[in-house]
Design brief:
This protein has about 400 residues and is of the alpha+beta class. The chain is about 45% helix and about 15% strand.
Length: about 400
């Protein structure tokens, strides 16, 4: 019997904690992943992730038809207005596919909801229609985990009222059709540096891409580097307000860490499903390899990890919906992201081993997950940063609030 090379994510049984509307949303997302994303995985990998705009538009149109676009954006702004638990249910399904093609689902960074009506009309509305895509530019050559080290600046020109932006940004993540960025710079006000977000179009004079390196994973998202050299933008390009970058970005980080926990959970469930199916069918030394504890026990460990990651992430989402103290929620999101991302990589490693030589083939989902899940321990805050956040919360908020 041959192994499964691009299997669909598994169906979930009924969840008594979900409403009918939530189960329907979960089912829509599952169908989208199975019918739209999974069949494209191997082709996408073989092409190195560089597909035509028309190829990606098919995914965008399918996502809009399935009403999966703009999930975290309020309905009054054209989004779906999902609760955080509903976002998690969808991202669990997204995570069950390889290639990061979920980034092609039209939407917009949560921070865009803080834009003015004019900003939303220019950036958010077309993003929800799949006509534009934005990136978030925070990281710099000398500023990664420590955002306080950001060197990029914005200086106000008193004569014109414009701001002049200068700096270099790395890992400016977005699909290859991305055409604007939300850039984090320091507004220079005398001796004061005030972290501020600006909306900048990619065709702005003075903004140029200096590198587009390949990375360990093959994702729909690219991670190019840009320099801003005397980029002039009007005051109306400020998103939120001068000095509000940290607060706005932290809210986005919490949301994205919960999403990462959910996607890692979905990845683990698919990995386990394919590994169990293969190990039961594969016969060596006259018996199923599943009957060897060296095969089945690591899968059992990953089953426990998967269940724990799902519970942690969904509980975090429910607390967010219930209005939990933002500082406590911050710590809980870090716990979910830390555990799920590290457990998912362990799971991928174990499953590659179960498949043996087949697990080393790029046509096998386990191989792709092994490369792709590694980044979840780095982006949106490394595992080490999550531990710092959790440790500080234990001291400041109390053990009972952080783990309770």
């Amino acid at each position: 019997m041959t192994h499964r090379t691009a299997g669909a994510p598994p169906a979930e049984g009924p969840d008594g904690n979900l409403t009918k509307a939530q189960r329907d949303l979960q089912a829509r997302a599952r169908t989208f992943v199975r019918e739209v994303l999974v069949p494209r995985e191997v082709e996408f990998e073989q092409a190195g992730g560089r597909m035509s705009r028309a190829w990606g538009m098919e995914i965008r149109r399918a996502a809009i038809e399935a009403r999966l676009h703009g999930g975290s954006i309020p309905s009054e702004m054209g989004g779906q207005g999902w609760t955080v638990i509903e976002q998690v249910l969808v991202h669990e399904q997204f995570g069950a596919s390889t290639g990061g093609m979920w980034s092609l689902v039209p939407g917009g960074y949560e921070v865009l909801k803080h834009g003015t009506a004019a900003q939303r009309a220019r950036y958010l509305d077309p993003s929800l229609r799949g006509e534009r895509t934005g990136s978030y530019a925070i990281t710099e050559p000398n500023a990664g985990s420590d955002a306080r080290a950001i060197e990029a600046t914005a200086v106000r020109d008193a004569a014109t009222g414009e701001y002049v932006l200068d700096g270099e940004k790395w890992f400016v993540t977005g699909p290859d059709d991305t055409d604007f960025m939300i850039v984090n710079v320091n507004v220079v006000d005398g001796e004061t540096r005030r972290p501020t977000l600006f909306l900048v179009d990619y065709d702005a004079p003075g903004l140029r891409q200096i590198a587009d390196p390949d990375h360990m994973h093959t994702f729909a998202d690219r991670h190019p580097r840009f320099v801003l050299e005397g980029v002039r933008v009007p005051e109306t390009a400020i998103l939120g307000g001068v000095g509000e970058a940290d607060e706005l970005s932290n809210a986005w980080f919490v949301e994205e860490r919960i999403h990462i926990g959910a996607r890692c959970t979905g990845a683990m469930e698919r990995l386990l499903t394919e590994a169990v199916e293969f190990a039961i069918a594969r016969v060596q030394f006259g018996q199923r390899i599943y009957d060897f504890q060296g095969v089945s026990f690591p899968l059992a460990d990953s089953a426990a990890d998967t269940a724990a990651a799902r519970l942690l992430t969904r509980e975090c989402a429910r607390l967010a919906d219930a209005g939990e103290d933002p500082k406590v929620l911050h710590a809980k999101a870090s716990i979910a992201k830390l555990f799920a991302s590290e457990a998912a990589f362990r799971c991928a490693d174990r499953v590659v081993q179960v498949f043996g030589g087949r697990g080393y083939l790029r046509e096998t989902a386990a191989e792709r997950f092994f490369r792709e899940l590694r980044v979840d321990r780095i982006w949106e805050g490394t595992s080490e940063i999550q531990r710092v956040i959790i440790a500080r919360a234990l001291e400041k908020r109390g053990v009972d609030r952080v783990v309770g």
